Amino acid sequence: MVGRRRSGIVMGALFLVAAGCGSSGGGGATTACTQGSGAAKTCIETYSSYAVSGGVAQAKTDCTNGGGVASDTCSHAGADGGCKIAESSGGITASFTSWYYAGNASTEMANCSSGGGVWVMP
Q1: Using CA atoms, how far apart are residues 3 and 18, in angstroms rounded to an integer?
Q2: Cα(first)–Cα(last) distance of the chain, in Å?
Q3: pLDDT tens string 85-102
Q4: What angle do CA 5, 104, 114 make, to 5 degrees?
Q5: Of 18, 67, 75, 80, whose CB has the highest number of CB atoms within 10 Å?
Q6: What is the predicted pLDDT for the residue at 103?
Q7: Cβ within 8 Å of residue 47, ≥6 positions away
Q8: 3-class secondary structure, 100
Q9: pLDDT digits (tens, 9 = 90+) for 46-81
Q10: Would you say the C-alpha torsion 105, 110, 114, 119 has a positive or negative sign?
Q11: Residue partners of 66: CB distance under 8 A and separation at least 6
């Protein structure tokens, strides 16, 4: 499950970097998208060390258009923890943290580790 989510969030981070090719920008940026509610809620927090002008706004629009709730960061209130995956290429670093709220931290932690992520506490 981590791999499938990871491919979606990698695309989101790439969008933060590439959305405005040729436009100004360049600072780091974080955006988040929450899907579901209650124990089925998941929030994906995406950070890029280089974000183009308009990239964050577009990522938030894509989140809401997909039925999610966009924000600057994921809420840690009630979270079991998060699975963080970081990647670097060409001097740009991106990290993706999937926050879980299902109340099953031991399983989520094991899935995170087996998928190459690092478990972070809220």
Answers
A1: 22
A2: 21
A3: 999 988 889 999 999 998
A4: 50
A5: 80
A6: 85
A7: 13, 28, 29, 30, 93, 94, 95, 96, 97
A8: strand
A9: 999 988 788 889 999 999 999 999 999 999 999 999
A10: positive
A11: 33, 35
